[in-house]
Write a structure and sequence with these properties.
The chain is built from 1 helix and 29 strands. By secondary structure, it is mostly beta strands. The protein has a domain at 31-142. The longest helix is centred in the middle third of the chain and has 4 residues, at 186-189. It is globular.
């Protein structure tokens, strides 16, 4: 039987026991993902020893038992009537959990009573940073401009989106021995979003073509691509493709009723196994269990969609 797992889903962190009990450990004040910079949602380290979260514009690390909290940086600055805030966002842990990548980025206009031209970008040390947990050392993490970091495969291989005037492009950025970029296969490179298997060999993507979404899979080793679904009825019908941790299973979400319903279906290995209203997120626990977020409820399910346990979660963080 699987060991207990600490899992983050949206702004919540839960413990999943080996006998499939589900316990809410903590909820965080989060605004979710910022497309260009990272996320304010909590992130659990691969070794399960740390939870990264943001507070007051800074990044923190906390043990799951809450007995140790480390403030990573002190760049966060609130907004004023004339200047945007300075925020810190989480990019992710290195695969060995020894280091954390975060970014310092300007905030957005958040003063409804201020004319937009009055708030300006505040001078700050914006950019990506690498925090070494053992030594508490911060160093700049050099990445090219005009990119979005999607996933850290390792510190020398980053899954990115190159932001370009004539269309964004997803691929693997290799930082050593010299910087190079390897694009995904064409349909996946130009997709709305993608997730990669653990070693980056397989990309599962939401591709948008002629106003219709579909799930496409690209093999980055064989340089092939195949359709997982037929084209849908709208750009939001198929979403959130994710492979299980070891890559054995593929999940994705479908908006039902030809995009006119509020109900969503979760598909696993091309079978619809679970439905609920307003399925905003799901995440894999291991190769046999997942957690879904449907409105104010987190549900632990198995591969067949059977509910193992559920808990109510606050609509606003505690």
């Amino acid at each position: 039987m699987a060991e207990d797992r600490i899992v983050a889903i949206e702004s919540f962190v839960v413990r999943v026991s080996d006998h499939s009990s589900l316990t809410l450990l903590q909820s965080f004040d989060s605004t979710g993902a910022e497309i260009a910079s990272g996320t304010s949602d909590p992130v659990v380290s691969p070794d399960q020893k740390w939870i990264a979260f943001t507070k007051d514009g800074n990044v923190f690390l906390e043990k799951p038992d809450k007995k140790s909290v480390i403030q990573v940086n002190q760049d966060g600055t609130p907004s004023t009537k004339t200047q945007f805030a300075v925020n810190s966002l989480i990019v992710g842990f290195a695969p060995d959990s020894k280091q954390l990548i975060y970014t310092v980025a300007p905030g957005k206009a958040d003063c409804p009573d201020c004319p937009s031209h009055q708030q300006k970008k505040r001078p700050a040390a914006y950019g990506f940073y690498l925090y070494t947990i053992a030594t508490k050392r911060i160093s700049p993490f050099a990445l090219p401009g005009s990119i979005r970091v999607n996933e850290i495969l390792d510190l020398d291989r980053i899954f990115i989106t190159r932001v370009r005037n004539y269309g964004d492009e997803m691929g693997i950025l290799n930082l050593k021995p010299k910087e190079s970029f390897v694009s995904l296969q064409k349909t996946c490179a130009q997709a709305a979003s993608c997730s990669l298997s653990k070693k980056g060999a397989i990309a599962d993507c939401t591709a948008i073509e002629k106003g219709q979404a579909r799930i496409v899979e690209c093999d980055n080793t064989l340089t092939t691509e195949r359709a997982i679904t037929d084209p849908g009825h709208c750009i939001t019908e198929f979403q959130m493709p994710q492979r299980s941790p070891a890559g054995q299973h593929l999940g994705f979400v479908q908006l039902l009723g030809e995009c006119k319903s509020k109900r969503h279906a979760l598909w696993i290995d091309q079978k619809s196994v679970f439905e609920c209203e307003a399925l905003t997120a799901y995440t894999w626990v291991d190769e046999s269990r997942l957690i879904t977020r449907c409105r104010g409820e987190l549900k632990l399910i198995d591969l067949s969609g059977k509910k193992l346990q559920s808990i109510q979660v606050p609509t606003k963080p505690n």
